[in-house]
Amino acid sequence: MTENSKESGGLKGELEPRSVEVFNDLKEFGDRMTAEERELKAQSKIRREAGETVKDQDFEIKAIDFDAGKPDQPALLIVGGMGPLAGVQAGEAAARALLNSREKKNTSLYQLTATPDRTEGIKEKAAGDPAKYDEVIRILEEGILTALKNVESKLGNKEAKIVIICNTAHNYIKDLAKKLPEGIEIVSIIESATKYLKVETGKSPAVNVAALYTDGTKAQKLYSGQFKKEGIKFDEPDEESQANLMDAIYKGVKAFDDKKTLEYGEKALEYLVRRDDITHVLAGCTEIPEVISVVKARTAIPGLKEKLQSLEIVDPVEKALERAL
User: Fold this and answer.
1) Where does the chain have alpha helices with state H?
2) What is the average pLDDT score of the chain?
3) Is 2 a residue whose pLDDT tops 90?
4) Whole-angstrom distance, CA of residue 210 vs CA of residue 223
5) Does domain 191-316 have CATH number 3.40.50.1860?
6) Less crowded by CB within 10 Å, the N or C end of the chain?
């Protein structure tokens, strides 16, 4: 029988989920993710029509769990909410993977929407003000500990493999690890994508990656540093394309505004039509798969749809989930 309970009590603190839903049926868990995506879009539309700016922190912290009856093995903990759409899409991806797997795993999506903007934290720290950077660390630390308590309370698991659904947040992992208890395993989406592309490069020296990510990820060389170390050939967008990519992420996907996602996404990705040497696209921000999906479905720019269809889109979240599952 499926338990679908929403609760307000239990775990204490500002980062306690406002609601917890537990499903015993995997298909219903996946369907709930799809419904949650619709709800997020509907809430965002109301805010936009009221003239409000939509941001991650506008949405409730919540948990959606799948109980496979496997409390004796590590659960999968997906820490999302950065933004909420990316978290839900990671939950959907996990549900699909589990449906196709013989081994099921207790799984929890924890939408940590209270996390401050990660790129702003990096930029402000570089300018000499570490306050927002430190606040991101605090929220991630307390949020993860809260989510682990939820996993133990609702699913019975004392251990979990954690996938944080934000590329830029991985800049904080080293400092975050110092705060967390020993033995907590975070499966890095940066490392997962890098390992995959290293294998791809080994198969063919022609591999050349269009590396797309936020300004924060770019500034901290989260991917570019690893790619250079591993001998992965890559190319970053020019300044104008990068600015449009940021707008597609923040004014488009994070605001659940498909028109702006298309408008800025086309401008950000149009240069790929002229690049016959590109073989792969790294979707190095969790909103970028959605940008590519919207542009691919709706663009009127000659050759852009066909170009995107011809390239392999590497989603670091998918690669990390494959490792975690």
Assistant:
1) 26-49, 84-99, 118-126, 131-155, 173-179, 189-203, 215-219, 224-230, 239-247, 258-269, 288-298, 304-310, 316-324
2) 94
3) no
4) 11
5) yes
6) N
Q: For the chain, which residues make up each domain, given as ranges? A: 19-186, 191-316
Please give the Cα distance from 216 to 211 (Å, whole number).
13
Confidence of residue 255 (pLDDT cuts 50, 70, 90): very high
CA distance linking residue 264 with residue 294, whole number of Å: 11
258-278 burial: b if 16+ Cβ within 10 Å, else e: bebbbbbbbbbbbbbbeeeeb
Q: Which residues of 149-165 are buried (b: 16+ CB within 10 A; e: fewer)?
A: ebbeebbebebbbbbbb
Please state the φ and ψ torsions of residue 23, each to the nearest 5 degrees. Answer: -120, 140
Of the candidates 166, 175, 42, which has an alpha carbon nearest to the alpha carbon of residue 113? 166
* Residue 113 in tokens: 């929407």
The end-to-end CA distance of the chain, in Å, is: 24
List, for residues 76-131, the tens digit of each pLDDT value: 999 999 999 999 999 999 999 999 988 899 999 999 999 999 999 999 999 999 99
State the pairing for strand pair 107-111/62-66. Answer: antiparallel
- Gap between the Cα atoms of 278 and 224, Å rounded: 16
Residue scoring higher pLDDT (24 or 8): 24
The pLDDT score that the predictor gives to residue 209 is: 98
**Rounded average pLDDT over 150-172:** 96
